[in-house]
Amino acid sequence: MLTEHEIQRRLADALATPDQEPIQEIPTLSEYTNQPLRPAAVLIPMLRWNTTWHVLFTRRNANLPEHSGQVSFPGGRADPGDLSPEETALREAYEEIGLNPQDVKLLGRLRGFITITNYSVTPVVGVIPWPYTLIPAQSEVTRIFTIPLDWLADPANHEQVPHPAPGQNAPVMVTYFKQFDGEVLWGASARITLTMLNALKIK
After folding, report:
1. Is residue 123 part of a domain?
2. pLDDT tens digit string along 131-170?
3. Is residue 82 part of a domain?
4. Residue range 14-53, pLDDT digits in tens
5. Pick from 93, 79, 51, 74: which is nearest to 192 by CA?
6. Rounded distance between C-alpha atoms, residue 163 and residue 142, angstroms
7. Is residue 177 part of a domain?
8. How many distinct structural domains can be found in the chain?
9. Structural contact between residues 10 and 149, judged by C-beta atoms closer than 8 angstroms
């Protein structure tokens, strides 16, 4: 059984490997923008439901200016007063879905990720109690749902799909998961999910 302690250990081991350069959603992003990267963080909430590990996701409001309508993790841009990516992730999770920071047991980080929208994202993994009453901020989140970790880890449930990208002469490969409970996990959040699965050595 995958315990919290084992998750923590595997995350630490993954970060201790030599290659920890951030993963880039588009490898040539710097060639078509000279804007500085914007620091951000997301929380990857894990929970036990009926003895099975699940990962919690949100669907972003379709009216948001960036990543509108997409499946994502709670999170966002760092505020000047945030002291760490963990503080950013917990603050954003509280603002977006009403998750009390005191109810999150932080287990570690994942390798950084640079998005097509020029964010430098630090994914933070934490465990939350379940069941738990969550209240989505309707201006940002239209749905909260979970996907079983074993389903996410099944190679039959995800693939790489060519996708047009700004500044690129050829399509880039983007991760898409199959539809689950009416939702499609793809793009940056899907790639971060695969990074977590690899760090946890779940196949």
Report:
1. yes
2. 999 999 988 999 999 999 999 999 999 999 988 776 667 7
3. yes
4. 999 888 888 887 765 555 567 788 999 999 999 999 899 9
5. 74
6. 25
7. no
8. 1
9. no
